[in-house]
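Example: Adenosine deaminase.
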Amino acid sequence: MTAPRIDADTLRRLPKAVLHDHLDGGLRPATLVELADTVGHTLPTTDPDALAAWYVEAAGSGDLVRYIGTFEHTLAVMQTREGLLRTAEEYVLDLAADGVVYGEVRYAPELMTRGGLTLPEVVEAVQEGLAAGMAKAAAAGTPVRVGTLLCGMRMFDRTREIADLVVAFRDAGVVGFDIAGAEDGFPPADHLAAFTYLRGENVPFTIHAGEAHGLPSIHQALQVCGAQRIGHGVRITDDIPDLGAGKLGRLAGWVRDRRIALEMCPTSNLQTGAADSIAGHPITALKDLGFRVTLNTDNRLVSGTTMTREMSLLVEQAGWTVEDLRTVTVNAVKSAFLPFDERNALLRDVVLPGYTSVLRTSPRA
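Written out as structure tokens, the predicted fold is:
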């Protein structure tokens, strides 16, 4: 059956939930230009439109290491309290404008201390900026709730220290932990001390795995480290020899049967070479096989994307329906690092009624 076309305004107004989105990968180009001028950092170009295009081109090399290298410029302007306050506030307002009702934003505090801020000062500034953004979004009639994930960098040795920071701020808006950075050559188990500590403190965490490295990375993240979600996870298909037949290997079966959320980011995966097309991205086949897939942006500036754009690409190129979009949104809320009653309330009071309301008032072409 051919999926009905859904107009762009309807897609924008659909309630959305994003679990995998990096703060330092989502700055507004104009803001990056202004902040770079303030701190004396040289950018590839000072024209905001040209800078946005440069990011997409540079990140689209098919190389995860080069993709990560584009963050040099955003991080350069996120070393001061003022820079962090502004980028965090604008982050929330941009989510609200995109129809996001729940988001989890992640960043690595250790990468934002070159200007003299301490790790706690970095977190305090980001939380203050996020709170300001949420207050403004609510006042504008587009409320959005944003939780924070703190990342340890997997190629460095401060993950245990960042885990302490998560525990210290878990009652101040920090909802979980992650490790980020180049995946290949830096296995999750290298940071087992941090994960063991967090499990003992009842703190949830996700792990980037199955993007640049395959099944061993996913297996370690789940069975050795104890991750509750997997960042990306596209390589789980290596354990499904025939996606059409749907016969799962034991690891893939574990992921599906235990409802472990996969934080999938189609456009980003095309840029890093983890997938070769939107139409052929594993998110569609895995959704159809009953995996708990979620749809995410990863880095909105670097990938030149939004949640509305990610939805539109799947509708236009992979035949997704409104029901498919609702499924991944519900999956994301169910897998959010929020208490059970708060997840249920978000679904009951915001997401499901929002879908019903938008669809009732929106014509389809």
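The mean pLDDT is 93.
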